[in-house]
Amino acid sequence: MYLLPFFTAAALLLPDVLAIGTNDQVESDIDYGTFQNPSPNVRPRFRYWVNDASMNLSVVAEDVKAIGKAGAGGLELVGYYLYGDSSNFGGQLASPLQSDWTVFGFGSPAWKNLVDTVLTAAKENDLVVDLAIGPNQGAGVPAPYNDDGLLWDLSGFNSSFSTEQGFDGTLPGWGAGPLIAAVTGRVSSTGSSNETYKVLAESSLLDVTHLVSSSGHLQFQANDTTKGLEHLVFAYYLVHSEYREVQSPADVEAAVPQSPVTTYSQNGSWAVDHFSSEGAQVTVNFWRQALLDNETGALIREVGNYMWEDSQEYSVSTWWTPRLQQVFQSNRGYSINRFIPILVGSGGGSTPNITYVTDEADAGTSHTVDYQQTLTELNAEYLTSLTQWSNELGIQFSAQVVYNLPLDMLANVPYVNGPECETLGFSNNIDGYRQYAGPAHLAGKRIVSSEAGAEMSKVYQEPIPELLWGLKRSLAGSVNQFVLHGYPNSGNYGNTTWPGFTTFAYIFSDMHGPRQPAFAFYGDFLDWLSRNQFVGQTGVPKVDVAFWSKSTSYESVPTVYSPVDLQNAGYTYEYLSPDNFVLPGAYVSNGTFAPNQQAFKALVVRANETLTAIGVAKLVEYAHAGLPIIFSGGLPSNFSGYNPEAARTATKALNNLTSLNNIHVVSYNNLAETLRSLDISPRTSVSANRTWYTTWRHDTATLKDYVYIYNDATGVPYGGGFSVGSVSFETTGTPFLYDAWSGEVTALPFYQQSETHVTVPLQLAGNQSIIIGFHKDTQPSLHAQNTTDGILWATGNTTSLTVYRSFDQQTRSLQLSNGKSATLAPMLTPAFTLSNWTLIVESWTPPSNIYDIEAGSTRTNHTFEVPTLLPWNQVSSSLANVSGLGYYSTTFSWPPQTTNGAVSGAVIDIGPITQTARVTVNGQVLPPGEITWARWDIGHLLQRGRNTVDIVVSTPLGNGLRTYWDQLETSGKLASAVVPSPPDEAEYGLLAPVQIVAYREDRVA
């Protein structure tokens, strides 16, 4: 069958960078570069970790330069500060300080100098920079103790009293902080263990806050005399969480003397209130005071991309903010006070001794949902404030919105310029990415970003194909910008050994940079990724189906729609919270929802979904505007929060809709078949023997369409998962292959075209992805309408077509687009495997002084004769604990002695690449190859007689660390103290047979 072209590209020259500005919408006026040579604005970036401001600034500048030279578009500057040096992971990561953090802390003059160094180096190297708004994960900054903009919590107390005597005394806990609420209630029952679970009679809950005197005295006689287990009075006080984003140097172990802490700016960083604009203002004020002079501000406007905050990983006992009661009353229509007892412990920072619920049918869940919805709305104020501030600086704001918190993630994604998810927290789950991307696309956001590549227990072991597997799944979920995790500063650091400072104490992958043998070859996959991002950021995403998805808790991001029927049929889909329906693009025109954004063909509401009043009102509007709405499994009955009247109104409204012709109440099973029966077809109809994912972008300026196609081989051993099939595209444009590995754009020579669709036959290696573009204004080349076995590829123009035929003993026929047919004679010269290799292994080991990181790895060569390709640890037992580079060389004769008939040239096929591979034939270096199935046309390089093949491969560092594992440390923390066992022994080198595949050129027209 036809194999996709795998040809070449010239070396890339990066264009000058232009400021990103504040326009976060699709098709914004920025410098995108070209598909061949994307600009830094659309290239991937590295998260650049500097542990503190003591780092050598010359090394910092060199790191920035190296990031650009590798092919990235810039970096995300993060002051790591030993991950806050806190008790996370049970204190495993805590390390003694190796510099004076009073002097070198976040926001210090030394930190400002480092920031300016990074910005200046980025300007000199045409790169862009994201700046973390705080140290560690950016959730806080230095601030005065107990500043009103810091993260809040509730401190709760309770006391029992008898019904007959009532309560007459000082509230329990009085003086812990300002009183938020005093509540009384009767315990009606307990769970199996009455020590930990108690049920409160909802009718007995009373807010008695107004009865508390200024001295904390409460006199109260219970009106509810119903017999119960006990009566309780609860008291809740507003307190600061005192959650440290970075510990004070005065409070932690240090390997070097620490200067006295004399100001709050030297005293570590506190997490700020993420439910108010006041919390955002603490961050803003600190930046204005400590970091933003005219020079730095000018540099930010020139090369700044994002101000940025990481995922929400701080904790409290109970999420709270001073305005919560007021906003809850205003937005929910009742007081939260009576229900605070069932909310305590929502922050996860500590487990309450007793869990309380109510005796309502839902155990009070509706009130918890109202609380979470209110927190969602307050968090939007925080995000909006930081977005506005970033825009005032002339750049944009990015954040990992909501997830890990009991809030509605989908509702708040639109409130930042560049919403970011992550591969680790989303578990590489395409459905999770679709949840995140839906609201971003509806809001017209140009970027859906991802912190990519962090995997537990993979540090120095994650091979590049595994990294790309996660990126490809992200691309399939409409992620279009990646920040690679991560690039640690490459300089010397206290009590830190080769291979260098390692974040998370050797737990999470990966440590990119010159310490990696593969780093000199990173440009191969970074250019590939850049071109995928270029396409993913071009135009407007188009999606077939929207799912209604309302949840007020995203402490994890599970799959919402589990059946595979939609996916297998080629339907694309995303998720929207009904909160998103207030966005300007959320309207119906000509039966299409969000016509200027995703242009959804239908909206699906499942029976197990949760309704909202605003959402149902919008459903009614959309239904009367002609949008096909499918109620899968029946009409939903669950309502979000406590509002019985609104729930009754919503139910009645839905029942009234069912009489409309465009409203369909169907069974839950086989939604794809339901859509087909309603003449709602996918933009990409897929027919394949494995799962293929697609995404679609439409460029309104050029009228070009771009489709990303990914053959998912999850769970299949690397190198497996080969798949054949076809895709029918809802377009009549001329199809072109956009080869992200080479940068070349070539007309597809095999496809069928109807009045409405183009159908392309494809075969894809496991985990291979491709991009097909459709040009509306291009005269189609002569092409074949079918393909067959024994065809490598074909080339042509408007009048001619040449087929490149590999070994095939059968006669084949092609139907051409000009109405003619062509017969292909058998091609009888078989492929042959190269053997008798010379292998020189360049082993990377520590320098003579293992603490002298800047000396780099010691490199030692070992030579082996390898008749047949094997993993290094099978070539010689001496290579079991070796990492580095492998230099393979061999020769072959051309033409082959087994030639039967004419041959025109050959392809060299090295199979799947295990890390990186650079191939040279007869002294000519070949361009990067498709990593899942690397093949090149070498017909123009062949010479009669002896031909030479040289292949340079790289490895991860994992095997090479095994021998030294007990010696390795980072900031005084031994690797073996956190990860007791060294990395598992992995197979390195060229693992697949290298073949020479002869071909014959057949001109068929």
From TrEMBL:
Residues 1-19 form the signal peptide. Keywords: Signal. SUPFAM superfamilies: Galactose-binding domain-like (SSF49785). This is Secreted protein. It comes from Aspergillus ibericus CBS 121593. The lineage of its organism: Eukaryota, Fungi, Dikarya, Ascomycota, Pezizomycotina.
